Amino acid sequence: MSDNLICVGAVMGAFGVRGEIRLKSFCADPAAIEKYSPLVTETGESYELTLVRSVKGGFGARLSNVQDKEAADALRGTRLYARREDLPSLPDDEYYHSDLIGLEVLDTGGVKLGKVTSVQDFGAGNILEIAGKGLKEAAMLPFTLANVPTVDLAAGKIIADPPEGLFPEPKDS
């Protein structure tokens, strides 16, 4: 995927029998996804998007060239991307999830904790999923100013002050 593309939504499956899809928007203003049309898929297919109605958990929508339920069902799980330049500029303290994934995470003493593998939101705010050496499973670090005082996209790193016990203590050499 190009760094120029940001995931803004996903097809959850067909909605009805006339080719509409059930769409989940990842935008801060969910309905804003329509403004970023045309959207592209990971395989490079391009679709014009039209929102038709609100439905539980998202929208009923139409994608250009999707004419029936079978075509809509075939797109289930497809992620939809917008061009970065079509999206609004963010304030200095906000980030697109795709910009955080892959960043190296260091503690305030410079010890490497791991890398961000995903950003989750279970309803109480963003959580950085961090995988690293010495971790049996990914650490889930709440993405708050207290836990993540510094994000340096240019340097490709995050400085974290995680709660005690979230990461294993470094072994003395």
Spell out the blueprint of helices and strands.
Layout: E1 5-14, E2 21-25, E3 39-40, E4 46-47, E5 49-55, E6 58-63, H1 69-74, E7 79-83, H2 97-100, E8 104-107, E9 112-121, E10 126-131, E11 139-142, E12 150-152, E13 157-160
Parallel strand pairs: 8-13
Antiparallel strand pairs: 1-2, 1-7, 2-6, 3-4, 5-6, 8-9, 9-10, 10-11, 12-13
Commentary on this structure:
Helix content is 6%, strand content 39%. It is mainly β. It has 2 domains: 5-86, Elongation Factor Tu (Ef-tu), domain 3, CATH 2.40.30; 97-160, SH3 type barrels. It has a 6-stranded mixed β-sheet. The chain has a 5-stranded antiparallel β-sheet with strand order 5-6-2-1-7. It has a two-stranded antiparallel sheet with strand order 3-4. A hairpin with a 2-residue loop joins strand 5 and strand 6 (58-63). The model has no long low-confidence stretch (mean pLDDT 91).
Supply database-style keywords.
SH3 type barrels, mainly beta, 173 residues, 2 domains, Elongation Factor Tu (Ef-tu), domain 3
- The CATH architecture of the largest domain comes to Beta Barrel
The top level CATH class name of the largest domain: Mainly Beta
Number of domains: 2
Average pLDDT for all residues: 91
Q: Spell the H/E element sequence.
A: EEEEEEHEHEEEEEE
Most strands sheet:
6 strands, mixed
Question: What percent of residues are in strands?
Answer: 35-45%
Radius of gyration: 19 Å
Q: Shape from CA axes? A: elongated
Uncertain segments are none
- What's the N-to-C terminus distance? 40 Å
CATH homologous superfamily name of the largest domain? RimM
Here the CATH topology of the largest domain equals Elongation Factor Tu (Ef-tu), domain 3
Count of individual helical segments: 2
Indicate the percent of residues in helices. Answer: under 10%
